[in-house]
Amino acid sequence: MKNFRGISFYIIIFVIMALFLMMYNNISNPTDMKYSDFRKELDAGNVSSVLVRTLNADVVLSKPSGLYAADFRYTVNFLSQESFIDLLEEAYKKGRLTNYDFEKKATPPWWLEMLPMIAMVVLFVFFWIFFVQQTQGGGNRVMSFGKSRARMANEDSKMRVRFSDVAGADEEKAELEEIVEFLKEPKKYVELGARIPKGVLLVGPPGTGKTLLAKAVAGEAGTPFFSISGSDFVEMFVGVGASRVRDLFDQAKKNAPCIVFIDEIDAVGRHRGAGLGGGHDEREQTLNQLLVEMDGFGVNEGVIILAATNRPDILDPALMRPGRFDRRVVVNYPDIKGREEILKVHSRNKPLGPDVDLKDIAKTTPGFTGADLENLLNEAALLAARKNKKVITMEEIKEANYKVIMGPEKKSRVISDKEKKLTAYHEAGHAIAVRLVSSTMKVDRVTIIPSGRAGGFTSYKPEEDQHYTTKSQLVEQIMVSLGGRAAEELVLGEISTGAANDLQKANQIARDMITKYGMSETLTNLVFGDENDEVFLGKSYGHIRNYSEEISAKIDAEVKAIIDNAYNKIKELLTENRQKLEDVARALLEKERIEADEFEEIFKNGYNPPVPVS
Asked: Under a CB-based contact definition with an 8 Å cutoff, are residues 479 and 569 in contact?
């Protein structure tokens, strides 16, 4: 059936080209004369000479007539040379033609006349085949829309990633090492009646190493490894995705035992029936075929499916059930130990200075993924090369850390003294607030040098990784966020737009305390709003809020009370520590940047700048 469609396609192309060339050949040139006009001029005795060729003749008129001039050579086409010569002889006998000449030749075969047109069509078809092959990724299959685009890597290929290259995910590696071991030594599992999982779903935020784990499995397995993206199944043509799924599993079964890795499976595995309106859904047909291939009536022994996604909440339940994806491996953000191990892996080929402490870097990068940490060391290496250094020092790593978080410092930006003073007191307010109220954070750097969209920046790092946050710690975060605005009002007597982002952060924390964490005084242990903040069309359309206007007013009042209490407390604390606030702001105005040890010294002993020697 597929071959018939392909042949039909080329026949249609051939017919279109033939019609086009015939139309092109029928277009008259300025020197052409219609056969009917020639007969009219011949009967009128206005033809002075005719030179006969195979299927055309050159005609010269003795005097002008209509559109034709005298003494000008025109071309007349005819179908039969013999009939045309008989016509000329008859006109010559009757005295209507004074002169004609011809070479009597046999009429050539029709296919010889069509040969140039056939050659052009063949060249066009050849070019079209070449073009389609290139757009489909090469290969020897013409118009292979329904063929799988999976790339196969086997033990002979150079898959350089091993489990030793994956750090900070020991438990995740153990889950996948078990599958690799089963493929290498299935006997000890079969003897105990164990069944290897048919599918393993890697779930986690972007950059945590899901694809890297899959590459490590490919490097360690020693069996054929097919890799494909979820979006490669989806096409504009109906039925192509399902055909590609069938072709992928056909290839996998021929090479069993093997592993099939589908990256970003949410592109094809999204929940069915989630769209508004009816009609045929190509993606749903592709998903149905994937479900059948993973666990249907057909035998699918020796094919293990690995898949990765950062959106498990939108996957279809039929895809998630045991028998399809038996095992779910959550690849989460690495902890402090994991970050240190990841830094060791990415710093193998980088010369580090003696002052570089990877454990300290891991402590100052909470929430960083493996991709973030690799980018951090790469940025540090680029900064060291820019400074013509031979090794990467702690200075470059710290500078790269702030560059990744905030963007590059804009030291060339011209700032007025008034704005500089406002920024200094604002950032000093944040720093003093961290020092006074936070039980988990300590100041790492305070700067009034603009970077990114911020006019200044106060960086603070946690003493240790936190997996849970208490109510008092959330209130501390709100007080720290409001410290900058409180300092502005306390010292300058007015507030500015510089605290806009701080207010958004404080309000979001306070609202989450009431609506998500049940930390309200009057609405205790109640959660408001849907689990999904975004509208899932066709599933929860129009059901965003599940509480009344009265409850909404109470939530707003609770949020305002938390914000007001936190603001009053931090303003009171800054008033009590006014001198410390002044010292930190003065140091920022002079130095523009204060590191952790300098801040601690100023907080304890005040700011005493050295007297310049005259």
From this structure: yes
Sign of the torsion formed by the C-alpha atoms of 431, 435, 436 and 440: positive
Q: Of 480, 457, 199, 233, nearest to 327 (Cα)?
A: 199
Catalytic site includes residue 427: yes
Q: pLDDT per residue over 330-374, tens digit each?
A: 998 888 889 999 999 999 889 999 999 898 888 888 888 888 999
Active-site entry in 220, 427, 476, 488: 427
In angstroms, the CA 136 to CA 121 distance is 23
Distances (CA, A) of 531 to 268, 314, 573: 23, 13, 37
Residues flagged as binding site for ATP = 204-211
With beta carbons less than 8 A apart as the criterion, state whether 99 and 52 touch: no
d(CA 428, CA 446): 8
Measured CA to CA, the distance from residue 42 to residue 63 in angstroms comes to: 12
Q: What is the pLDDT of residues 193-222, one digit of tens each?
A: 877 788 899 998 888 888 888 888 888 877
- Please state the φ and ψ torsions of residue 100, each to the nearest 5 degrees: -155, 155
Domains of the chain (ranges, CATH numbers): 3-102 (3.30.720.210), 151-272+283-330 (3.40.50.300), 336-406 (1.10.8.60), 417-532+543-605 (1.20.58.760)
**In sequence order, what are the residues at sequence separation of 6 or more whose Cβ sits closer than 8 angstroms to the Cβ of residue 456?**
423, 424, 426, 427, 446, 447, 448, 449, 450
Phi first, then psi, for residue 48 (nearest 5°) are -90, -35
pLDDT tier at 569, thresholds 50, 70, 90: very high
What is residue 71's three-state secondary structure?
coil
CA–CA distance, 562 with 511 (Å, rounded to integer): 9
User: 225-229 and 151-153: which strand pairing?
Assistant: antiparallel
Q: Give the pLDDT of residue 2.
A: 44
Whole-number Cα distances in Å, 235 to 99, 273, 286 = 69, 19, 10
Whether the CB-CB separation of 488 and 495 falls below 8 Å is answered with: yes
Give binding residues for Zn(2+) as ranges.
Answer: 426, 430, 502
> Please, is 361 exposed, middle or buried when counting C-beta atoms within 10 Å of its C-beta (0-12, 13-18, 19+)?
buried
Type of residue numbered 139: G
Peptide bond before 257: cis, by omega within 30 degrees of 0? yes
How far apart CA 94 and CA 160 sit, in angstroms, is 95
Displacement of CA 597 from its chain's centroid (Å): 42
Binding residues: 204-211, 426, 430, 502
**At residue 328, what are phi and psi to the nearest 5 degrees?**
-115, 120
Model confidence at 252, in pLDDT bands (50, 70, 90)? confident
- DSSP-assigned states of every residue in 412-450: T----HHHHHHHHHHHHHHHHHHHHH-SSEEEEEEE-S-
Q: Which residue has the higher pLDDT, 405 or 24?
A: 405
End-to-end Cα separation, the chain, in angstroms: 96
Q: Reading across the β-sheet that carries 593-595, which strands appear in turn?
A: 457-462, 441-447, 593-595
**Rg for the chain, CA atoms, rounded:** 40
